[in-house]
Amino acid sequence: MIANVDPNTIVYLNGDYTRLADAKVSVLDRGFIFGDGIYDVVPAYKGQAFRMDEHLGRLERSLKLIGLEVNYTRQDWEKLVLDMLARVSQGQDCMVYLHVTRGAAKRDHAFPANTTPTVFCMVTPFERPSVAREKGLTAISIPDVRWLMCHIKSISLLGNVLARQQAVDAGVDEVIQFRDGYMTEGSSTNIWVVKDGVLLAPPRDNLILEGIRYRLLEELAAKAGIPFEARPISEAEVEAADELLLTSATKEVLPILQYNGKPVGTGQLGPVYQALRAGYDQILDQLEG
Ligand code: PMP
Q1: Out of 64, 79, 153, 195, which one is annotated catalytic?
Q2: Number of domains observed in the structure of the chain
């Protein structure tokens, strides 16, 4: 038994739909041994997948970037996500977690020959942010000590886990990571800076995971007439921000109102956040329930 996990929930493992408690993988699985795999998380509102194409596109890019060939077409992935939602979601808000590893093989760093990848999928309930939308979040800065391929949605998440724990230990909601003096991202979120009415984000490169909300926020900003710029952002600019925001599938878009113990801008919800949040809510309202 694992605390807080329903053992009867149905998960998908290598072609079978089974109870979570019955889903087993080999201890020689390269995901377990090496963290050799990738994942993605598709949010679903009232059982309806949101931006599934974009998430599956990123899943396929991650697979390609680590040279993992798996016998699933885009249609197979779509079918898997939709099947799992139909079986498990009960029309609730939830997350579809997809996870692919290079499979079980004799322990050897090099890619194994003739090994079948492990494909796992589970659906977990998701509660939309509520209080934080008004109250805002707190964050601290930390050095980004992760590897240089953060654009891959790797299951090797030790760097992100240690970063997140620093937030917990400091009693804040998130960390903002910096590499060589420039902002990268949160432990599991993308970070946005607003200065003089302009929305800023770090470039889409190997130093961050490009969230599915990255382009979404760009679209929402364009619709709201908010100028957007992707460029390196220094620590000083983050300190002097009028607004700080974070985005992720589970957090949607939220304001950071306290940074390194000081208020961000006025310390109140800012106009850019409010416009982007309204746009985000509007898109979700339009989803067919
Ligand atoms: N960066 C990292 C490191 C993440 O883990 C996540 C969450 N997947 C994000 C950014 C945000 O991505 P998304 O908007 O697709 O959830």
Answers
A1: 153
A2: 2
What is the Å distance from ligand 1's center to 107 Cα?
A: 30
Domain that holds residue 273: 131-285
Strands in the chain per DSSP E: 10-13, 16-19, 37-45, 48-49, 94-101, 118-125, 137-143, 174-179, 182-183, 190-195, 198-201, 228-230, 243-248, 252-259, 262-263
For 181-223, how does the pLDDT look when each residue is reduced to its tens digit (9 = 90+)? 999 999 999 999 999 999 999 999 999 999 999 999 999 999 9
pTM above 0.90, yes or no: yes
* Closest residue by CA, ligand 1 atom 4: 188
Residues 136 and 269 placed together within one structural domain of the fold: yes
How does pLDDT run across 142-160, given as a tens digit for each residue? 999 999 999 999 999 999 9
Atom of ligand 1 nearest to the CA of 216: 14
> Does 160 share its domain with 278?
yes
User: Pocket of ligand 1, candidates 98, 185, 187, 280: which has the most ligand atoms within 8 Å of its Cβ, to mutate?
Assistant: 185
3-state secondary structure of 116: coil
Ligand 1 in contact with 217 (CB < 6 A)? Answer: no
| Helix runs in 8-104, H state only | 30-34, 52-65, 74-84
Is residue 1 assigned to a domain?
no
**What is the spatial distance between Cα 55 and Cα 121, in angstroms, rounded to a whole number?**
14
Q: Hey, is 14 helix, strand or coil?
A: coil
Q: Is 153 annotated in the active site? A: yes
Residue nearest to atom 3 of ligand 1 (CA): 188
**Whether residues 98 and 147 fall in one domain:** no
Residue nearest to atom 9 of ligand 1 (CA): 189
